[in-house]
Design brief:
- This protein is mostly helical and 443 residues long.
- It has two domains: 209 residues, Clc chloride channel (Orthogonal Bundle); 209 residues, Orthogonal Bundle (Clc chloride channel).
- The protein has 18 helices and no strands.
- α3 packs antiparallel against α5, α13 runs antiparallel to α14 and α14 crosses α15.
- The longest helix has 33 residues.
């Protein structure tokens, strides 16, 4: 399809080889949805086995678990991580390649065996309590499936880049039940551009993946949101939340970059995750909210169920736990941990504002903080707004202030540092090259 304009992306069914391209889209969607469902079930199984009891959430089970279980499970997760990373490094001669780097600098090519192994290891250790997100695994699986189909079909590099981005976004869409948000995420955050010729493949891949996952996973909002009362004054406070979230997100991304670039090497790859996760297990005896990806924290913040003292502690400890896990080479995602950090920040601002504005709703501030923080850390304002709508199943009560907070946070963060959590490992030279490629594609 290299003879087609726009890098061979067919915009109509009449163009040469268009049916083959769209057939690949369907297969990628099915594969991404099935793999996301399978990985989610594995995570849930691991969580039930490691944290037993008739509890719906990891937090509920961790609260009643004995102290020795906290330490034993997290130390075991550290040992599994160290051994797993060493085994994966020896099984595959190819170096691990981040999805963002693969799309921009390797035309979407990724080492399949190592990437899938990392995905499986990720869901296991997150299920055991590592403070990282679960979306990394389905994204990796979707990307690998797209890459493999591109090899079989002989697609051009530009087609492969799009398909890998769509596959990764579809994996995220299926894992969280967010078809529109996943499609926009694949283009705005991973592919770095929103163009009409790219939208239809991304939408189709994500909706197919979500529909396949819904055969196994529940089709329901991830978070239960209380009824918020909108007002004109909240728009002013939303702008304030956006400013604070912008500066906080820049610091978070920069620390993530430092942690990622200083991951342990050699024999330290075996011992670092044991030490970090073991320490997390000890601290989690008193602060069980630190375990897992942070989903429970977001829900508590939306319902304004976090006491001020605990809120301050989690605002410091939860991002620190995520950074330490990442820096010790524990595999996992950053979406939900970033969402949790933003929700904690917004909730803290809301509780302070409630002292001067009695009608302030800390739960709404938590949602605004989550949206602004995730938009600034991913550099994806449109996808962030849509993801919050799909994750909560609501929009009218918060859409206007959310847009204000997201726009201001993204604008300020991008002015200070254009780097996102997904390209934190890129060097300055790679960032410059990526921008040149992006500019060339928009001419």
């Amino acid at each position: 399809m290299s003879d087609l304009p726009n890098g061979g992306i067919p915009s109509t069914l009449r163009q040469p080889h268009a049916p083959r391209f769209w057939f690949a889209i369907v297969l990628i969607g099915i594969g991404a949805g099935a793999s996301a469902a399978a990985l989610t079930l594995i995570l849930q199984f691991v969580q039930r086995v490691m944290w037993p009891g008739s509890h719906e959430t990891l937090l509920d089970a961790a609260i009643v678990a004995s102290p020795w279980r906290h330490v034993a499970i997290l130390v075991a997760a550290g040992m599994l991580t160290g051994l797993g990373q060493i085994v994966l490094g020896r099984l595959s001669r190819s170096n691990s390649i981040d999805i963002t780097a693969a799309i921009w600098f390797f035309a979407g090519r990724m080492p399949a065996l190592r990437t899938l192994g990392s995905a499986l290891l990720s869901v296991i250790v997150v299920g055991m309590g590592a403070s990282l997100g679960r979306e990394g695994a389905p994204k990796q699986a979707g990307a690998v499936i797209a890459n493999a189909l591109s090899d079989k079909s002989g697609f051009s590099d530009e087609q492969r880049r799009l398909l890998v981005a769509c596959g990764a976004g579809a994996g995220m869409a299926a894992a969280y039940g967010v078809p529109l948000g996943g499609a926009l995420f694949s283009l705005e955050v991973l592919r770095g551009m929103l163009a009409l010729r790219l939208v239809l493949p991304a939408l189709m891949t994500s909706v197919i993946a979500s529909a396949v996952a819904w055969l196994v996973l529940p089709d329901a909002p991830t978070y239960i949101q209380p009824a918020f009362t909108p007002s004109a004054l909240i728009l002013i406070f939303a702008a304030f939340v956006g400013v604070i979230a912008a500066f906080a997100s820049v610091g978070f991304v920069r620390i993530i970059a430092i942690a990622d670039r200083n991951r342990p090497a050699g024999t330290w790859r075996l011992f670092a995750p044991v030490f970090v996760l073991g320490l997390l297990g000890i601290i989690s005896i008193a602060q069980p909210q630190l375990l897992g990806n942070g989903k429970d924290i977001v829900q508590m913040a939306l319902m304004n169920q976090i006491a001020p003292v605990l809120l301050v502690a989690l605002l410091i400890l939860k991002p620190l736990a995520t950074i330490c896990c990442l820096g010790s080479d524990v595999p996992g995602g950053l979406f939900t941990p970033s969402l949790a950090a933003g929700a904690l920040l917004g909730s803290a601002i809301g509780q302070v504002c409630a002292l001067i504005w009695p009608d302030a709703q800390p739960g709404l501030f938590a949602l605004l903080g989550a949206g602004a923080f995730i938009a600034a850390t991913t550099q994806g304002p449109i996808s962030s707004v849509v993801l919050l709508i799909e994750l909560t199943g609501h929009d009218r009560s918060f859409i206007a202030p959310l847009i204000v907070a997201v726009v201001i946070a993204t604008l300020i963060a991008r002015t200070i540092d254009p780097r996102s959590i997904y390209d934190a490992r890129l060097t300055d030279q790679q960032l410059q090259k990526r921008q040149e490629l992006r500019d060339a594609n928009t001419r």
